[in-house]
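[AMINO ACID CHAIN]
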Amino acid sequence: MDEQSMSSWWNEGLSGEDRDEWCAALDTGVVGEDLLITLTAEQRAWLENAEETTASMGADLQAFVAEECSKRLR
């Protein structure tokens, strides 16, 4: 997973509402079906324990989302 790919996905591939949902998912680390659809098949490699309707954020993805969410709060 590379930083440029993640940044592009965050800045260009997600709506503001999607970003809000990703930030909210940080509390549990669980990614539900509504967030899974925001990822391409390749991006699903960023997840752990991926199932059809739920998954867990991998450590790198969780750190990236936490950093991006903190920027939004500034």
In short: The mean pLDDT is 91.
